[in-house]
Amino acid sequence: MKNVLKKRKLFLAVLLLLAIVLLPYLWSRINSRANRVLVFEMDEPGVAVAVEPSSKLRVACYNIAHGRGLAESNWEGGDAQTRMARLDEIADLLVELDADVVVLNEVDFYASWSNRVNLAEYLAEKAGYRYRVEERNLDFRVLLWTWRFGNAILSRYPISNPQVIDLPSYSKVETLLAGKKRGAHCEVAFGASIYRIVGLHLSHRSEEIRERSAGQVSELIADLPQACIVMGDMNSTPPGLPRSATTSEGANTIMTLTENGHLTRNIPNNPPGEAELTFRSDSPEMIIDWILVSESLEFQSYRVVDSLLSDHRPILAEIVTFNGSEPEELLKTGG
C-alpha cells in the first residue's frame, strides 16, 4: 500500500512539474503572433525628423543581432545597463544614417535575454520613426524565459497594407514547436509615390531553403503593382564573390531574386574591398546583407557602414526612379 501511495505521489509530482513547464509554453504558442504582422504609429517620437519627401528615398537595412553586440550567444553581450547603452548607440547610428525606411533583422520583442525590451519600439522612439511594422519569427515561452524575435520595418512615412511572407520551413516540427524565419512587406507612401518595402531574414542553415524562399518572394513581387525594395540579411552571396554557395542544382538565392524577381543589386568590386563586406563586422569576409530594388528604380548611392555595434554591418542606399542610364554603370559603386 505504501509503495502504491509513493508511486501516486511521484506520478502527481511529475504531472505538476509538466503542467508548470508546459502550460505557459502551450499558452504562448496558442497566442503566438508569429503568423501575422503588427503595425504601430507613435504620437510623438523621441527625435523630431523632417518628413517632407526629397527627390531621393534613403533606405537602410541592419541585422542588429538582438542587441548583443559582437557576442556569440544571445545570453551574452553584457549586463542590462551595457545592453541598453548599446541600444542607445544603435539608435544614434540610425539617426546618423538618416534613412527614411529601415529594415531591422534579429529584433527582440520582450525576449528574456534583452531585458524584456521591445527593441523595435525602443529604437523607433529613440531614432524618430513614427511608423513601424513588427513581424515575429520565433515566439514561445518556457517557465520564466521568453524567446520572441523577428524583423521590423521602421518608417518616417505612413505604412499600409502590411502582410507576412510565409517562407519555407527547415523543419515542420520545429516550426510547430518554436516558429521559423518569415518575412514582412508593406506599402510606404513617399510623396506621390508608393513603394512596397520587403523585409527578409533568410535561413542561415541551407542554400536550398534560402533559394526556395527567394523563388517564393520572386512570385510575390511579380504580383505586386508597386516598385519594390527588398532588404535584409539574405545569408547568401552571388557567384563570383567570397563564400558564395549554390544548391545541388546550381541555383543561388541572390541570382534567383535578381533574375526571377526582376530586381537589381549593387555590383561590388571583384574581389570586393573590405569596405564592401557586411559580415562579420569585426573581421569582414563576405557580403550577405543586401538591398535589392525593382528595375524601375536605381541606386544613386550605396554603401556599407563601418560599425561594431552588431556582428553585421548596416547598408545605406539612396534610390531614385530609373532614368534610362545603363544599369551596370549605375550600380557599380565600388562600396
TrEMBL record:
Superkingdom to which the source organism belongs: Bacteria
Record GO biological process: GPI anchor biosynthetic process
Domain Endonuclease/exonuclease/phosphatase: 62-312
Gene3D superfamilies named among the record's database cross-references: Endonuclease/exonuclease/phosphatase
GO molecular function, one term: exonuclease activity
Alphabetized UniProt keyword annotations: Endonuclease, Exonuclease, Hydrolase, Nuclease
Key word Methyltransferase present: no
Keyword set includes Hydrolase: yes
SUPFAM superfamilies per UniProt: DNase I-like (SSF56219)
Record GO cellular component, one term: membrane
InterPro entries: Endo/exonu/phosph_ase_sf, Endo/exonuclease/phosphatase, GPI-anchor_lipid_remodeler
PANTHER family: CALCOFLUOR WHITE HYPERSENSITIVE PROTEIN PRECURSOR (PTHR14859), ENDONUCLEASE_EXONUCLEASE_PHOSPHATASE DOMAIN-CONTAINING PROTEIN (PTHR14859:SF15)
Name used for this protein in its record: Endonuclease/Exonuclease/phosphatase family protein
